[in-house]
Amino acid sequence: MDRSFARADRSAVRRAAPLALLLAVAAAWRAFQWSRTVSMFNDGPLFLDIARAIAAGDGDAVLGQPHHPLYSLLVAAVHGLGVDWETAGAAVSIAGGTAAVGLAFWLLRDLFGEAPAWLGASLLAVHARAVEYSSDVQTDGIYLACFLAAAWWLWRAWSRRSLGFAAAAGLASGLAYLARPEGVALVGVAGLLASASWLRDRWPAGFALRWLGTFAIAAALCAAPYVIALQHHAGSWSLTHKKSVAALLGAASAIPAQRPAASPAPAAPAPARAPALAAPPAAQPGGRLDRGEDGLAVVRADSGAARSAASAKMLARTAKSAFRYGPLALLAMGLVAARGRPTRRAWWIASLLAVYGALLYALTFQMGYVSRRHALPPLVPLFGYVGLGAIAMGAAIARVARRGPALASALAIALVALVAAGEIATQREPRRAEERAARAAAEWLREHAEPAPLAVSRLRLGYYAGMPYIRLTRVDDASFQSFLEQSGARYLLLDDPADVEAARRVAGDQLRPLHRAHEGGRDAWVFERVGWAAP
């Protein structure tokens, strides 16, 4: 008896060891990418501010901003262990991204079997988008882990008609909602699955209602404290304060155009006298100072039909970019290999994609943008078809060569390794390396200038400068001067030669150059408004 238990333990260790190694590789690669990241994700300072508010017990500050709290709550917990804020933010993201790889493996194994799961999860471990979104100060790593946990248990709940797994999936979907508002759409997926099972006479109506009710109640129990707190804070019921989701509910219909007020930043040290500088490049005719938010893509169309078509095209393009071309080629092979009458697996994946596709299409149509970060999570189950595609291609080549299964398996692994190598190659440069000069200029401001509002295109640069931040919006030449006056900005940080040129042309007599940072072959200029007075 003792020997049989020992053999079972050794067998479990042998099965777990490869997955542990894969997770270690995923974590190490994400940590390496963060270690050489030049500047954090642009909303990173907001998440850190929320974490500080949580640590300070300032509930109003937590509820008074649009981001959901789970990620920042975990960051505050890690910071409580003695880790600095930025490292804590990255560590939570890396942990979430690493867990997502393991959860993807378990989901894909249930859906596709062992071999496709290993191939798909191995590719996800180094996938450029997945790594980018889970090795920074941002919510996506934690959200992806919660989303995949909910998806895995939702598959088990549906395929096994299990109320226990329905409850687990509901709890995980509630956590996904606490990380990002689109997590709530998992309730829609569960509703679609239950309805389809009842309409196709697979489930009795009573069981379908109990199953869906179990899922919904578990999700509500997890999400309810935050929803109730939002109601208490705002005085009205709402699932989220994010304007993009409010627009989907009809509360807003236009891309917000107002300029935000200066947001506070940590106090900077006392200033040192700025050294004398050569003037920046002389102004030349033409050019505009036209800055947009990172990752913002806007659909502009004159009619509803044109906007619908443009939104669909943009969503398809975004999804393709999120999945990336190498995995997309293997996905196409896998879909061909799995052709035939739709299986339960295909219906489940189609339901997930239908609900999230509709949500993202509505977001694109209503708000005029969609991000690859939004598109990637519901696409992860398709990595199983990527594994199937590699296996099918390897088997086809082995048949032509009249060789056996050993060659087919080796070729499948080689195909995925080739695509993975391509993913790794695209990550060879440090993230946001083009911002070295801008970050250096921002840190110079922190060390040498007294705190005052800073107009700059990216929030993270205001964070590194330690200055109250004023977003430098897309302004044309005619309005740039009035923007400076109305915003109350004292400093201006520019790292684009065209922007420097435009600023000198439009308001050159009102701007005094304070500092030029030169890093990585690029320049960033810090200007001060002549005659600025504190409001």
Run of helices and strands: HHHHHHHHHHHHHHHHHHHEHEHEHEE
* Measured distance between first and last alpha carbons: 82 Å
Major sheet: 5 strands, mixed
Strand content: 5-15%
Order of the strands making up the biggest sheet: 2-1-3-5-4
Percentage of residues assigned to helices: 55-70%
| Rounded Rg | 26 Å
- The chain-level mean pLDDT equals 88
Structure, explained:
By secondary structure, this protein is mostly helical. The protein has two domains: 11-246 and 407-425, no CATH class; 257-294 and 432-535, no CATH class. 64% of the residues lie in helices and 5% in strands. The protein has 22 helices and five strands. The protein has helices spanning 2-35, 44-56, 59-63, 70-79, 85-112, 114-126, 128-133, 140-159, 163-179, 185-199, 205-234, 243-248, 304-323, 325-337, 344-367, 372-379, 383-400, 405-425, 436-448, 459-465, 477-487, 497-507, and strands spanning 454-456, 469-471, 491-494, 511-519, 522-529. Strand 4 (511-519) and strand 5 (522-529) form a beta hairpin. It is globular and about 75 Å long. The protein starts with a helix and ends in a 6-residue tail after the last strand.
